[in-house]
Specification:
Strand content: under 5%
Oligomer: single chain
Number of domains: 1
Shape: flat
Distance between the termini: 32 Å
Order of helices and strands: HHHH
Structural class: mainly alpha
Largest sheet: none
C-alpha cells in the first residue's frame, strides 16, 4: 500500500497518493466488503464469505505477479548475474 505508489509517482506526490490508496483500501475493505460478504452469506450460506476472501486473495496474488521491478540497482544486479 505504500511502496508501489511511492515508487510510481513524483516524490512530491508520494504522501497524497499513499493517502488515496490507503483511503480507497479502507473504504473498499472496511465498508463495502462486509456488505458484500453479508449479502453472499444470506444467499449462499456462511461459508460464502470465506470463499469471497479466498477469491479476493487469489486475485490480489495474480495482480502482484504483474508488477515490474523499478529499483535500478536491483534490475542492474539481475542483468549481471549469471543465468
Amino acid at each position: 500500500m505504500a511502496t508501489i505508489p511511492s515508487e510510481s509517482v513524483d516524490p512530491r506526490l508520494t504522501a497524497t497518493l499513499t493517502g488515496v490508496v490507503m483511503g480507497t483500501g479502507e473504504v473498499l475493505g472496511g465498508v463495502l466488503s462486509p456488505f458484500l460478504a453479508g449479502a453472499l452469506a444470506d444467499v449462499y450460506g456462511l461459508s460464502a464469505a470465506l470463499w469471497l476472501m479466498l477469491v479476493l486473495c487469489i486475485l490480489a496474488g495474480i495482480c502482484a505477479l504483474g508488477l515490474v521491478e523499478s529499483a535500478p540497482r536491483v534490475v542492474a544486479r539481475r542483468n549481471l548475474a549469471p543465468a
